[in-house]
Write a structure and sequence with these properties.
It is built from ten helices and two strands. It comes from Rhodocollybia butyracea.
């Protein structure tokens, strides 16, 4: 009598919609954001050839980080959806490319945060304590990202992403706190440059809104990613959202740098018009007076044929100088406001 065939226990089939389907959508959105980032990078190098070499290196570094990250997540999607399509054991194993993507997102985010921290350091009068605390908070996020990556690499399981709750929670919370704090401090130093001029203050208000929006968008995506993680830790929806987080930082950085030309064009247009109109007004109002010489004793050798009065014309140069001083102060405040978010 032949032995009965061995029992085959079917492997659990994951829900592809909330796992690898969500991953595919995340890769597509990341590809779109990478295209926008590349366009902004080309625009930056073309428009600001005289920027400091340190700023150019930051731009090149974050672009390289994001490009390599896109290669990692695209290869992961190809591995699960093409190379191992229908092979269930492969869907349960994590690849080293998928594991490393967490670290590269952390590196891009950290580089962008350091750039804005440098601006805060300059405009806070080199406040080492404040900048040091913020830098430590940003370092915590990066270190936790690296630790989570190492732990997932050791287990090589997709389910490990749902196990690292403490590390992921710390990383997202510290990152969100750092983003909100950096945006708030930048807003404070920008608003401190208000001059009382209506158009100048309108320009500063525009910069404030842009700065706040940048910090809020990255913070909100981090919070939504954290919510998606706790709602579905076994799915990959939170990973798909996390794919895009680093590129929001880098696109915000490039948008900040590239917006300087438009802001300075607005600055030039409003400032020149205001000063020219005030200068014309001052030049049109000169002071003239006549001084009779009869009020003074005759000097030796003075004859009767000499004029009896002397006409004196006094230009109101003092007011012009005052307007020039106000104009220079106004321009200085506007430039400082732009430099807070740029260089």
């Amino acid at each position: 009598m032949s032995a009965p065939p061995p029992l085959c226990i079917p492997l659990p089939t994951p829900n592809l919609n909330s796992t690898y389907g969500a991953m595919l959508i995340g890769v597509l959105f990341s590809t779109f954001l990478q295209g926008v980032l590349t366009l902004q990078t080309v625009t930056y190098y073309d428009s600001y050839p005289k920027d400091p070499i340190s700023t150019k290196l930051v731009v090149a570094t974050v672009w390289c980080f994001d490009t390599f990250h896109l290669i990692l997540i695209a290869q992961s999607a190809y591995h699960y959806l093409i190379s191992n399509w229908g092979f269930l054991p492969a869907l349960l194993e994590s690849t080293w490319e998928l594991d490393l993507n967490v670290t590269f997102i952390g590196l891009s985010t950290f580089a962008c945060q350091l750039f804005f921290l440098k601006r805060i350091w300059v405009f806070s009068g080199r406040n080492w304590i404040m900048v040091g605390v913020l830098a430590a908070l940003c370092c915590v996020t990066l270190v936790v990202d690296i630790i989570v990556t190492v732990q997932i690499l050791e287990h090589r399981s997709v389910a490990e992403f749902g196990v690292q709750k403490t590390g992921i929670l710390v990383a997202f919370i510290s990152g969100a706190v750092a983003d909100v704090t950096i945006a708030s401090l930048l807003t404070f130093y920008i608003r401190r440059n208000r001059s009382g001029f209506e158009k100048t203050d309108s320009l500063i208000t525009l910069i404030v809104r842009y700065t706040v929006t940048t910090g809020v968008v990255t913070s909100l995506l981090g919070i939504f990613t954290l919510v998606a993680y706790f709602l579905s830790p076994d799915g990959l929806t939170f990973i798909a959202m996390h794919f895009c987080l680093g590129r929001l930082y880098t696109n915000a950085l490039l948008a900040t740098l590239n917006s300087r030309s438009k802001l300075r064009a607005t600055l030039e247009g409003t400032s020149n018009v205001q000063f020219d109109s005030s200068r014309k007004k001052d030049n049109s109002t000169n002071l003239s007076m006549s001084i009779p010489l009869s009020n003074f004793s005759s000097a030796p050798g003075m004859t009767d044929t000499q004029p009896s009065t002397v006409n004196v014309q006094v230009h109101k140069a003092t007011e012009v100088l005052q307007d020039q001083y106000i104009y220079n102060q106004k321009r200085s405040l506007e430039e400082n406001a732009i430099r807070v978010v740029g260089v």
